[in-house]
## 1
Amino acid sequence: MDDHKRGDKSTQRKANKVLTTKLLIATLAMFGFGFALVPLYDIMCDALGINGKTNREAVAQPLALSPDTSRTVRVEFIAHPNPAMPWEFKPKVTSMDVHPGEVIQTSYYAFNRANKTVIGQAVPSVSPGMGASYFNKVECFCFNKQPLDAKSAVDMPLIFYIERDIPSSIHTLTLSYTLYDITPKDPEGTEGNHGPEDTAQISPSMTLLEDVGQKGAIQ
Protein backbone atom coordinates (compact mmCIF):
# COMPACT_ATOMS: atom_id res chain seq x y z
CA MET A 1 0.00 0.00 0.00
CA ASP A 2 2.79 2.39 0.92
CA ASP A 3 4.63 1.48 -2.27
CA HIS A 4 1.48 2.27 -4.24
CA LYS A 5 1.15 5.69 -2.58
CA ARG A 6 4.81 6.47 -3.17
CA GLY A 7 4.35 5.51 -6.81
CA ASP A 8 1.35 7.82 -7.15
CA LYS A 9 3.27 10.71 -5.58
CA SER A 10 6.25 10.10 -7.88
CA THR A 11 3.98 10.06 -10.91
CA GLN A 12 2.27 13.25 -9.75
CA ARG A 13 5.61 15.02 -9.26
CA LYS A 14 6.69 14.03 -12.75
CA ALA A 15 3.40 15.27 -14.17
CA ASN A 16 3.77 18.56 -12.30
CA LYS A 17 7.32 18.97 -13.56
CA VAL A 18 6.23 18.34 -17.15
CA LEU A 19 3.36 20.83 -16.79
CA THR A 20 5.66 23.46 -15.27
CA THR A 21 8.15 23.01 -18.10
CA LYS A 22 5.41 23.37 -20.71
CA LEU A 23 4.08 26.52 -19.03
CA LEU A 24 7.56 28.06 -18.93
CA ILE A 25 8.10 27.28 -22.60
CA ALA A 26 4.70 28.76 -23.47
CA THR A 27 5.45 31.90 -21.45
CA LEU A 28 8.82 32.38 -23.13
CA ALA A 29 7.26 31.78 -26.53
CA MET A 30 4.56 34.41 -25.92
CA PHE A 31 7.17 36.85 -24.61
CA GLY A 32 9.28 36.37 -27.74
CA PHE A 33 6.24 36.66 -29.97
CA GLY A 34 5.37 39.98 -28.35
CA PHE A 35 8.81 41.34 -29.24
CA ALA A 36 8.48 40.00 -32.78
CA LEU A 37 5.09 41.59 -33.44
CA VAL A 38 6.43 45.07 -34.28
CA PRO A 39 9.08 43.99 -36.81
CA LEU A 40 6.67 41.43 -38.29
CA TYR A 41 4.04 44.14 -38.65
CA ASP A 42 6.57 46.46 -40.31
CA ILE A 43 7.62 43.70 -42.72
CA MET A 44 4.01 42.95 -43.61
CA CYS A 45 3.18 46.62 -44.10
CA ASP A 46 6.29 47.16 -46.21
CA ALA A 47 5.33 44.21 -48.41
CA LEU A 48 1.78 45.49 -48.82
CA GLY A 49 2.78 49.15 -49.08
CA ILE A 50 0.39 50.27 -46.36
CA ASN A 51 2.65 51.54 -43.58
CA GLY A 52 2.77 55.20 -44.60
CA LYS A 53 6.45 55.58 -43.73
CA THR A 54 8.51 57.99 -45.78
CA ASN A 55 12.27 58.24 -46.22
CA ARG A 56 14.11 58.92 -42.95
CA GLU A 57 17.15 60.38 -44.68
CA ALA A 58 17.49 62.93 -47.46
CA VAL A 59 17.30 61.60 -51.01
CA ALA A 60 19.31 63.12 -53.82
CA GLN A 61 17.29 65.02 -56.38
CA PRO A 62 17.58 63.20 -59.74
CA LEU A 63 19.43 65.30 -62.30
CA ALA A 64 17.04 64.43 -65.11
CA LEU A 65 13.90 65.00 -63.07
CA SER A 66 11.17 66.83 -64.98
CA PRO A 67 7.54 67.47 -64.04
CA ASP A 68 4.68 65.61 -65.63
CA THR A 69 2.45 68.57 -66.42
CA SER A 70 -0.33 66.33 -67.70
CA ARG A 71 -1.48 65.52 -64.18
CA THR A 72 -1.49 66.89 -60.64
CA VAL A 73 -1.61 65.35 -57.19
CA ARG A 74 -3.14 67.21 -54.27
CA VAL A 75 -0.78 67.22 -51.26
CA GLU A 76 -2.33 68.02 -47.90
CA PHE A 77 -0.21 69.07 -44.91
CA ILE A 78 -1.17 68.28 -41.32
CA ALA A 79 0.54 68.91 -37.99
CA HIS A 80 -0.14 66.98 -34.79
CA PRO A 81 1.27 69.07 -31.93
CA ASN A 82 2.02 67.43 -28.61
CA PRO A 83 -0.54 68.81 -26.11
CA ALA A 84 2.06 68.56 -23.34
CA MET A 85 4.67 70.44 -25.39
CA PRO A 86 4.77 74.27 -25.27
CA TRP A 87 5.10 74.65 -29.05
CA GLU A 88 2.82 76.07 -31.65
CA PHE A 89 3.34 73.84 -34.68
CA LYS A 90 1.53 74.10 -38.01
CA PRO A 91 2.08 73.98 -41.78
CA LYS A 92 2.54 77.29 -43.61
CA VAL A 93 0.04 76.06 -46.20
CA THR A 94 -2.61 73.38 -45.77
CA SER A 95 -2.54 71.98 -49.30
CA MET A 96 -1.13 72.44 -52.78
CA ASP A 97 -1.44 70.90 -56.22
CA VAL A 98 1.79 69.31 -57.39
CA HIS A 99 2.91 67.83 -60.69
CA PRO A 100 4.67 64.46 -60.32
CA GLY A 101 8.38 65.08 -60.85
CA GLU A 102 8.12 68.72 -59.70
CA VAL A 103 10.41 69.80 -56.86
CA ILE A 104 8.44 71.74 -54.26
CA GLN A 105 9.57 73.79 -51.27
CA THR A 106 7.32 74.69 -48.38
CA SER A 107 7.72 74.91 -44.62
CA TYR A 108 6.22 74.31 -41.20
CA TYR A 109 6.03 77.02 -38.56
CA ALA A 110 7.05 76.48 -34.95
CA PHE A 111 6.95 78.81 -31.96
CA ASN A 112 8.29 77.94 -28.52
CA ARG A 113 6.03 79.45 -25.85
CA ALA A 114 8.21 78.25 -22.98
CA ASN A 115 10.78 80.30 -21.07
CA LYS A 116 13.50 77.78 -21.85
CA THR A 117 14.89 75.93 -24.85
CA VAL A 118 12.74 73.01 -25.95
CA ILE A 119 13.89 70.31 -28.37
CA GLY A 120 11.37 68.81 -30.76
CA GLN A 121 11.42 65.81 -33.06
CA ALA A 122 8.86 65.50 -35.85
CA VAL A 123 7.90 62.06 -37.16
CA PRO A 124 6.29 62.02 -40.63
CA SER A 125 3.77 59.71 -42.23
CA VAL A 126 1.99 59.70 -45.58
CA SER A 127 -1.45 58.41 -46.42
CA PRO A 128 -2.64 56.49 -48.26
CA GLY A 129 0.21 54.17 -47.29
CA MET A 130 0.61 52.84 -50.81
CA GLY A 131 1.62 56.34 -51.92
CA ALA A 132 4.33 56.80 -49.29
CA SER A 133 7.08 55.21 -51.38
CA TYR A 134 6.45 57.76 -54.16
CA PHE A 135 6.87 60.75 -51.83
CA ASN A 136 10.55 61.71 -51.55
CA LYS A 137 11.95 64.32 -49.17
CA VAL A 138 15.10 66.08 -50.40
CA GLU A 139 15.29 68.17 -47.23
CA CYS A 140 13.17 67.94 -44.11
CA PHE A 141 13.28 69.31 -40.59
CA CYS A 142 12.24 65.82 -39.48
CA PHE A 143 15.70 64.43 -40.29
CA ASN A 144 17.14 66.10 -37.18
CA LYS A 145 16.03 67.08 -33.72
CA GLN A 146 15.10 70.75 -33.62
CA PRO A 147 16.14 72.88 -30.61
CA LEU A 148 14.14 76.09 -30.33
CA ASP A 149 15.10 78.83 -27.87
CA ALA A 150 12.65 80.38 -25.45
CA LYS A 151 9.97 82.56 -27.10
CA SER A 152 11.53 81.93 -30.54
CA ALA A 153 9.80 81.21 -33.83
CA VAL A 154 11.13 79.50 -36.92
CA ASP A 155 10.08 78.37 -40.38
CA MET A 156 11.36 74.84 -40.92
CA PRO A 157 11.70 74.00 -44.61
CA LEU A 158 10.52 70.94 -46.43
CA ILE A 159 11.68 70.15 -49.98
CA PHE A 160 10.09 67.19 -51.73
CA TYR A 161 8.98 65.70 -55.00
CA ILE A 162 6.54 63.00 -56.03
CA GLU A 163 7.81 60.34 -58.38
CA ARG A 164 6.46 60.46 -61.90
CA ASP A 165 5.37 56.82 -61.81
CA ILE A 166 2.96 57.30 -58.93
CA PRO A 167 -0.20 55.29 -59.76
CA SER A 168 -2.89 57.27 -61.54
CA SER A 169 -5.40 56.03 -58.96
CA ILE A 170 -3.73 58.22 -56.31
CA HIS A 171 -5.10 61.74 -56.52
CA THR A 172 -4.34 62.98 -53.00
CA LEU A 173 -1.48 62.45 -50.56
CA THR A 174 -1.66 63.59 -46.95
CA LEU A 175 1.62 64.35 -45.22
CA SER A 176 1.31 64.55 -41.44
CA TYR A 177 3.88 65.22 -38.76
CA THR A 178 3.55 64.14 -35.15
CA LEU A 179 5.66 66.27 -32.81
CA TYR A 180 7.51 64.83 -29.81
CA ASP A 181 9.25 66.63 -26.97
CA ILE A 182 12.74 65.11 -26.60
CA THR A 183 14.13 67.77 -24.27
CA PRO A 184 16.41 66.22 -21.62
CA LYS A 185 14.84 66.11 -18.18
CA ASP A 186 17.81 67.88 -16.60
CA PRO A 187 16.97 71.62 -16.84
CA GLU A 188 20.66 72.52 -16.80
CA GLY A 189 21.06 70.81 -20.16
CA THR A 190 18.05 72.41 -21.79
CA GLU A 191 17.81 76.09 -20.95
CA GLY A 192 19.70 77.92 -23.67
CA ASN A 193 22.75 75.67 -23.37
CA HIS A 194 23.22 72.86 -25.90
CA GLY A 195 26.07 70.42 -25.52
CA PRO A 196 28.30 69.37 -28.44
CA GLU A 197 25.91 66.59 -29.39
CA ASP A 198 22.92 68.93 -29.54
CA THR A 199 24.87 71.53 -31.51
CA ALA A 200 25.95 68.94 -34.04
CA GLN A 201 22.35 67.88 -34.53
CA ILE A 202 20.96 71.35 -35.18
CA SER A 203 19.68 71.29 -38.74
CA PRO A 204 20.58 74.03 -41.21
CA SER A 205 16.83 74.23 -41.70
CA MET A 206 16.55 76.17 -38.45
CA THR A 207 17.30 79.43 -40.26
CA LEU A 208 14.25 81.51 -41.03
CA LEU A 209 13.11 81.04 -44.61
CA GLU A 210 10.63 82.63 -46.89
CA ASP A 211 7.93 80.31 -48.11
CA VAL A 212 8.88 79.94 -51.78
CA GLY A 213 8.27 77.63 -54.65
CA GLN A 214 4.70 76.88 -53.71
CA LYS A 215 3.04 76.55 -57.05
CA GLY A 216 -0.65 76.04 -56.71
CA ALA A 217 -0.55 76.54 -52.94
CA ILE A 218 -3.80 77.06 -51.10
CA GLN A 219 -3.46 79.13 -47.97
## 2
Amino acid sequence: MRLNFEENITWKRAEDQVDKLILRDRNHPSVIGWSIGNELFAIALLNKPKRMFQKNGMKELSN
Protein backbone atom coordinates (compact mmCIF):
# COMPACT_ATOMS: atom_id res chain seq x y z
CA MET A 1 0.00 0.00 0.00
CA ARG A 2 1.40 3.37 -0.98
CA LEU A 3 0.94 6.34 1.28
CA ASN A 4 -0.49 9.44 -0.31
CA PHE A 5 -0.31 12.32 2.14
CA GLU A 6 -2.66 14.34 -0.02
CA GLU A 7 -5.56 11.97 0.67
CA ASN A 8 -7.67 12.35 3.79
CA ILE A 9 -7.94 8.57 4.22
CA THR A 10 -4.18 8.40 4.83
CA TRP A 11 -4.47 10.85 7.72
CA LYS A 12 -7.60 9.11 9.05
CA ARG A 13 -5.79 5.77 9.15
CA ALA A 14 -2.79 7.38 10.86
CA GLU A 15 -5.09 9.02 13.40
CA ASP A 16 -6.83 5.72 14.13
CA GLN A 17 -3.49 3.96 14.56
CA VAL A 18 -2.19 6.65 16.93
CA ASP A 19 -5.39 6.51 18.99
CA LYS A 20 -4.99 2.73 19.38
CA LEU A 21 -1.32 3.07 20.32
CA ILE A 22 -2.09 5.70 22.94
CA LEU A 23 -4.84 3.62 24.50
CA ARG A 24 -2.73 0.48 24.46
CA ASP A 25 0.54 1.95 25.76
CA ARG A 26 -0.57 4.98 27.77
CA ASN A 27 1.00 3.66 31.00
CA HIS A 28 4.17 2.25 29.46
CA PRO A 29 7.44 4.11 30.13
CA SER A 30 8.35 4.03 26.43
CA VAL A 31 5.48 6.37 25.60
CA ILE A 32 7.90 9.28 25.99
CA GLY A 33 9.99 7.91 23.13
CA TRP A 34 7.34 7.65 20.44
CA SER A 35 8.73 8.87 17.20
CA ILE A 36 8.22 8.96 13.48
CA GLY A 37 11.96 8.65 12.99
CA ASN A 38 11.61 6.03 10.29
CA GLU A 39 9.42 8.39 8.27
CA LEU A 40 12.10 10.93 7.42
CA PHE A 41 10.68 11.49 3.96
CA ALA A 42 7.66 13.12 5.59
CA ILE A 43 9.51 15.81 7.56
CA ALA A 44 7.67 18.59 5.72
CA LEU A 45 4.34 17.10 6.80
CA LEU A 46 5.07 16.88 10.53
CA ASN A 47 2.84 19.80 11.49
CA LYS A 48 -0.32 17.96 10.45
CA PRO A 49 0.22 15.00 12.84
CA LYS A 50 1.15 17.48 15.58
CA ARG A 51 -2.17 19.26 15.14
CA MET A 52 -3.91 15.89 15.01
CA PHE A 53 -2.46 14.91 18.41
CA GLN A 54 -3.39 18.24 19.94
CA LYS A 55 -6.91 17.98 18.54
CA ASN A 56 -7.40 14.53 20.00
CA GLY A 57 -6.74 15.58 23.55
CA MET A 58 -3.17 14.57 24.25
CA LYS A 59 -3.32 17.00 27.15
CA GLU A 60 -5.93 14.78 28.81
CA LEU A 61 -3.36 12.01 29.12
CA SER A 62 -1.10 14.19 31.24
CA ASN A 63 -3.73 14.68 33.93
## 3
Amino acid sequence: MGAKRRLREYIYHLLVAIDQLFNAITGGAADETLSSRTYRGARLAQQPKTRWKIL
Protein backbone atom coordinates (compact mmCIF):
# COMPACT_ATOMS: atom_id res chain seq x y z
CA MET A 1 0.00 0.00 0.00
CA GLY A 2 1.44 3.36 -0.99
CA ALA A 3 2.06 6.26 1.34
CA LYS A 4 -0.48 8.46 -0.49
CA ARG A 5 -3.22 5.88 -0.09
CA ARG A 6 -2.45 5.38 3.60
CA LEU A 7 -2.55 9.15 4.14
CA ARG A 8 -5.85 9.42 2.27
CA GLU A 9 -7.38 6.63 4.36
CA TYR A 10 -6.04 8.19 7.56
CA ILE A 11 -7.60 11.56 6.71
CA TYR A 12 -10.90 9.89 5.78
CA HIS A 13 -11.03 7.99 9.07
CA LEU A 14 -10.08 11.11 10.99
CA LEU A 15 -12.93 13.09 9.40
CA VAL A 16 -15.43 10.31 10.16
CA ALA A 17 -14.21 10.25 13.77
CA ILE A 18 -14.66 14.03 14.07
CA ASP A 19 -18.17 13.70 12.61
CA GLN A 20 -19.03 10.97 15.13
CA LEU A 21 -17.57 13.00 17.99
CA PHE A 22 -19.65 16.04 17.04
CA ASN A 23 -22.75 13.84 16.86
CA ALA A 24 -22.02 12.37 20.30
CA ILE A 25 -21.43 15.83 21.80
CA THR A 26 -24.81 17.01 20.50
CA GLY A 27 -26.64 14.05 22.05
CA GLY A 28 -26.49 11.36 19.38
CA ALA A 29 -25.06 7.85 19.42
CA ALA A 30 -21.27 7.66 19.65
CA ASP A 31 -20.82 5.45 16.58
CA GLU A 32 -23.25 7.27 14.29
CA THR A 33 -22.40 10.16 11.98
CA LEU A 34 -24.33 13.40 11.98
CA SER A 35 -25.57 12.80 8.43
CA SER A 36 -27.01 9.43 9.48
CA ARG A 37 -28.74 11.04 12.44
CA THR A 38 -30.09 13.81 10.22
CA TYR A 39 -31.49 11.29 7.73
CA ARG A 40 -33.19 9.31 10.47
CA GLY A 41 -34.62 12.48 11.97
CA ALA A 42 -35.93 13.83 8.67
CA ARG A 43 -37.09 10.71 6.83
CA LEU A 44 -37.82 7.94 9.28
CA ALA A 45 -39.63 9.84 12.03
CA GLN A 46 -43.43 9.93 12.04
CA GLN A 47 -43.48 13.72 12.44
CA PRO A 48 -40.01 15.08 11.64
CA LYS A 49 -38.87 18.17 13.50
CA THR A 50 -38.07 21.26 11.44
CA ARG A 51 -34.39 21.21 12.44
CA TRP A 52 -33.87 17.90 10.64
CA LYS A 53 -35.52 19.17 7.47
CA ILE A 54 -33.20 22.19 7.43
CA LEU A 55 -30.01 20.15 7.85
